[in-house]
Design goal:
Shape: globular
InterPro entries: FAD-bd_PCMH, FAD-bd_PCMH-like_sf, FAD-bd_PCMH_sub1, FAD-bd_PCMH_sub2, FAD-linked_Oxidoreductase, Oxid_FAD_bind_N, Oxy_OxRdtase_FAD_BS
Number of strands: 19
Structural class: alpha+beta
Cofactor: FAD
Family: Belongs to the oxygen-dependent FAD-linked oxidoreductase family.
CATH architecture of one domain: 3-Layer(aba) Sandwich
Protein name: FAD-dependent oxidoreductase
Keywords: FAD, Flavoprotein, Oxidoreductase
Radius of gyration: 22 Å
Bound molecules: flavin-adenine dinucleotide
Number of helices: 13
Length: about 475
């Protein structure tokens, strides 16, 4: 049986007769180059198009080749901050295919067309009792996230999300379309899964899903002053032996009064613990008890001001957390932290917490470990993440003064934590081209580069390469 989602409504295509790319004066340009990231930037490519079909993608490739310009690919534009600085000379192609998300429950596989957001995917998979390693927000584009590796709120069970991709259909620079998997073009298949992009235009991916009918998910929030360092320390202790079905984040948040921000969290710094416990083998009682064992000691340390953990349907995990990313102009920083003791967590609280004077909207520690650290033989180029924590910090960029203050806070926190910062970063966490970043060791980098040279010898997609050398 194949179940079909509602993503595939028909929208007007761009007339082929005048070429698929529109110039800056054309309304189709604004639609295609639109950035959903208020953060940074407006994309200003030389010309832009939206492709609704695979044929339109191939047409765009052919026209970009004829023009001699590089071709930038995007789906939602969430990563506009990374794309904008290189966009000016390029043609930009937004891929939003008029195809539905489909799921084959018997095989535990979901087919995701380019342009689908996680909300589209989870709506379809949850309806048939399957869970996928989606992002923490429903608005994130599934393909862009998977190409960058992908850290899911179920990630300690699934591992790096890209490793769950079982095939990808991709339009290449020579106009051909290939479906690649572990047996057909295995090198290209490997490189697509976290290899840093710039390989072609992905039309669809097939992703593994696991049976699950519900999830323990939610957010416990404390006033940051009241929580002190005790809650953060106790959480950190818990992470060290936490079972794999639990994946959490600890965040210091200071949010303005925006739609969707719960009233108790507005206008003060809070400490929030959110995440999910995905019942392994549908053992709901065990999931409840995992969540209880995590939360009860923390709730005893300080009285929460908000506590939403509950057993819910699978779509709940995409909306459970209040995510400041994409909700306003921000400047960001991201890094991975190696194993540390209480001194590391205390330093994080001192540096970003109430006593620090930080004006950041978020300072986040994402729990890794579990399957994130496994490097399965079938893994893609991104492989695994050995570090136990991913940090993501963001501050307001609503005015030049706010931007300066935020940049100051970001630098200070980076400096305070430098003892624990490793030299590897996760591509999907990097929103700003100024952030020091490195995904691979030299050998993997050379291998990806070889694959890229094979499929795109003239560098049509060169501006999509997300992990430039030398950083
Ligand atoms: C609110 C929010 C929450 C997030 N949560 C998480 C999270 O939980 N875990 C996590 O790992 N990341 C998370 N992210 C980061 C997110 O995964 C990245 O921003 C990702 O790049 C978004 O992909 P996109 O397709 O939406 O963005 P886009 O800006 O459209 O695309 C990003 C890049 O992907 C490539 N790309 C996109 N589509 C295609 C295609 N069809 N073919 C070829 N290349 C393509 C291009 O190189 C493009 O530059 C979050 C981001 C936001 C804004």
């Amino acid at each position: 049986m194949t179940v079909v989602g509602a993503h595939g409504e028909r929208r007007s295509g761009i007339a082929a007769a005048r070429g698929i790319f529109a110039g800056p004066d054309d309304p189709a340009y604004a639609e295609a180059a639109r950035s959903s990231d208020l953060a940074a930037t407006t994309l200003r490519p030389a010309a832009a198009a939206t492709a609704r079909t695979a044929a339109e993608v191939r047409q765009a490739i052919a026209e970009a080749v004829r023009s001699g310009r590089p071709l930038l690919v995007l789906s939602t534009g969430h990563s506009a901050g990374m794309i904008a600085p290189v966009a000016e000379d390029a043609y930009a192609l937004r891929v939003a295919l008029d195809e539905p998300v489909t799921v084959d429950p018997a095989r535990g596989l979901v087919r995701i067309p380019a342009g689908a957001r996680w909300a589209d995917v989870v709506e379809v998979t949850s309806a048939v009792g399957l869970a996928v390693p989606h992002a923490s927000s429903p608005s994130v584009g599934a393909v862009g996230y998977l190409l960058g590796g992908g850290l899911s709120p179920y990630g300690r069970l699934f591992g790096v999300a890209a490793n769950n991709v079982v095939s990808a259909t991709v339009a290449l620079a020579d106009g051909s379309v290939r479906t690649v998997d572990s047996e057909h073009d295995p090198d290209l298949f490997w490189a697509l899964r976290g290899g840093g992009g710039g390989l072609g235009v992905v039309l669809a991916v097939e992703l593994l899903a696991v049976p699950a009918t519900g999830v323990m998910t939610g957010m416990t929030v404390w006033d940051a002053d009241a929580a002190g360092a005790g809650v953060a320390r106790a959480w950190w202790e818990w992470t060290r032996t936490a079972p794999r079905e639990a994946t959490t984040s600890l965040r210091l948040l200071d949010l303005p009064d925006l739609p969707g921000v719960p009233e108790p969290m507005v206008g003060r710094q809070v400490l929030a613990l959110d995440g999910a416990v995905l019942p392994y083998g549908n053992d709901v009682d065990r999931a409840r008890s995992v969540a209880r064992r995590m939360l009860e000691p923390l709730r005893r340390l300080a009285e929460p001001i908000l506590d939403t953990w509950r057993l819910d349907g699978l779509t709940a995990t995409t909306t459970t957390r209040v995510d400041p990313r994409g909700r306003g102009r921000t400047v960001t920083d991201a890094f991975l932290l190696r194993e540390g003791g209480h001194d590391m967590i205390d330093r994080w609280v001192e540096s970003a917490g109430p006593a620090s004077g930080s004006e950041l909207v978020v300072a986040e520690l994402r729990q890794l470990g579990g399957a994130f650290a496994d490097d399965p033989v079938f893994a893609g180029a991104f492989g695994a993440v050995a570090e136990p924590l991913a940090a993501f910090n963001a501050g307001s960029a609503s005015s030049p003064a706010a931007t300066d203050a935020s940049r100051g806070d970001l630098l200070r926190i980076r400096g305070d934590l430098r003892r624990w910062i490793t030299n590897r970063t996760v591509p999907t966490m990097i929103d700003d081209p100024g952030i020091p970043r490195r995904t691979f060791g030299l050998e993997t980098e050379a291998y990806v580069e070889n694959v890229r040279r094979d499929v795109d010898p003239r560098g049509l997609f060169r501006l999509d390469v997300r992990d430039p050398k030398g950083l």
